[in-house]
Amino acid sequence: MPILIKIHDKGVVSVCDSELLGKCFDSGNLHLEVNERFFKGEKRTEEYIVEILKVSGNATIVGKKSVAMAVKNNIIDQKSVKIIKGVPVAYLFAV
Fold first, then answer.
1. Strands, E, within the chain: which ranges?
2. DSSP secondary-structure letter at 9?
3. Chain segment 31-51, per-residue pLDDT in tens
4. Does domain 3-93 have CATH number 3.30.1860.10?
5. pLDDT at position 6, please?
6. Do 5 and 44 contact (CB within 8 A), yes or no?
């Protein structure tokens, strides 16, 4: 399954595994909604997505493939990944 990327206003980027689109996950007091309005973007190559993430101000990254790609390319640290009902989630914030 492909990875989707959507570039929002002001440098905000959302990245997700396409099969998670439209699904919700709950674990304790944590809730994750992979809603289409925020996450439905374009299918792009890993190289393209990595380049966008390297220059983005803020990003939300959801799914096993998406998060693994971000970790492998040193976009995020594995220690910052949260798991909600088996789904990896990471946030990238510009400092």
1. 3-7, 12-17, 24-27, 30-33, 42-43, 58-62, 82-84, 87-93
2. G
3. 999 999 999 999 999 999 999
4. yes
5. 97
6. yes
